[in-house]
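Is iron/sulfur cluster placement plausible here? Inputs below.
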Amino acid sequence: MGSASGSVTKQDTADILARYESDPFLLLPILQEFQDRFHFVPPQAKEAIARHLSLPLSHVEGVVGFYHFLSDEPRGEYEILLSDCIIDHFRGRESIRQRLCDQFSTRTESAQADARVSIRQTACTGLCDQGPAALVNGYAIAALDVQRVEQMVALIRCHIPVNQWPETLFQIESNIRLPGPLLYADLVPGKALERAFQETPEALLTRLERSGLRGRGGAGFPTGMKWRLCRETPGEHYLVCNADEGEPGTFKDRELLRHHAHAVLEGMTLGAWVTGAAEGYLYLRGEYRFLRPVLEQTLRERRKAGLLGEDIGGMKGFDFDITIRLGAGAYICGEESALLESLQGNRPRPRNRPPFPVTHGLRGQPTLVNNVETFAAVTFIALHGSEWLRNDGTETSPGSKLLSISGDCSRPGIYEFPFGTSIHEILDTCGAQSPMGVQVGGPSGNFITPREFTRRLAFDDLSTGGSFMIFNGERDLLEVIENFTRFFARESCGFCTPCRVGTSLQERLIKDLRQGKMRKEELPTLQQLGRIMATASHCGLGKTAANPVMTTLEKAPQYYQRAFVQTGSGTTAQPCPMENPE
Ligand code: SF4
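Reply from A.M.:
I modeled the complex. Tokens:
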């Protein structure tokens, strides 16, 4: 959990680098080790890393500068990252921040004078069902209240290393409120492989296609088709599990990985068998590093049982293994091509598509990328047949979907609903209290008002990767929108102008609006900005970053009308500063 900070000697650097091969793919794990041990990546270390990996120094600096969890300036020996998710704000996050800052005489985003403590913020810790939450030296602490904060302050004042803090502080509730076929499903490790090995990879592919399984990340690409495309593309195949669920309000993978890791890893192994991949990666979001020990333990168990490694399950020549890679706080890595760049040790800039990763992925080779929930579902389809999925859901959206429900309801947590369930039913089940709206699919998703609560959870109606945030009538919708625009401005990777400049301008305009500094006549500027971002941005982040503003302007314009500063009539609209951005 990080040692005391101090000067970094040549020997320290040499000792760390000696444990890593000279492979640029290892850049991120190397940088993370320096960050963990010294609370920053010092200049001499960057030079040594660049030499060790035969990379330009500017490349190493660019990567350090990109990730929120890496720094080239010393951070505190105790680094506290508070969740900036709107749900945490509504659960009292601001008073927690204020108390911590008062206790350590510091401000957010700065280190204390003696460098002991730094207090910063991160977009979302994946604990919205039990916030307000924070990461301390990367480890999650949920349900922060006055008592827990005082406990943390006392431990820090006594110089107790985080790995010696009481375990109760790190207790994370599962909050599985409504299990369905996936969360109830039991797996004897290896059984799905054993069943699949009785037939051929082609038979498993057919079973997947018949099941109608669609990727659970939200876009819903048919899984069987993706697997077939990957299998039929010649080359050295790779496989990646995208466990970087970073959409604020999402936390379902946390519990799938905690309680169903065998199912996820077995699904990955089935993917390797079908596509011929020998190397697999599980890219775990940095906020979930507390899950890493249990996942590493599960990998060891599977290797020991012959379910990973050589001749898996007695199948001669089927060799495959999985490496866990930890993210470093960058939402864009949830985009699969950015994730692959991150794995390769590059700045995670989304690639031009096509070609798609399924044919040109890791190292330019065919790569199967699916998320945690999809791989887990594959395991049970392999075991029980395509009907296991088809028994639930609708014709075009078969099966069930895990939702991470947070906000104004009496039972926040993880729910598994069959596709086709109405929003009304979901709200009733979780005990929602007079909702004025629901944000489905995180900040980039859909804001729906009570008029739309008859809509259904389905790929062809309301699709979501899992985030489902409920807001009651007492919430200030513009506070929600400001939070979402801040999120996008912070997470834009900066590569293309419409998104880089657009997200910042949008954040500023909404801030002005909330502070009573925006005139009604400026509204077309905001709308024009949204249209430019949606059409001219390079990737999905920029294309959807104006969704929160555009959808609420359309569905709840009264919130905006009330906030405009009143001026005389006849003022003309300002031209949008984003016209012809490039
Ligand atoms: Fe980066 Fe945004 Fe452009 Fe995507 S749209 S490439 S996140 S700047």
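Short version: Residues 120 and 247 are 19 Å apart (CA to CA).
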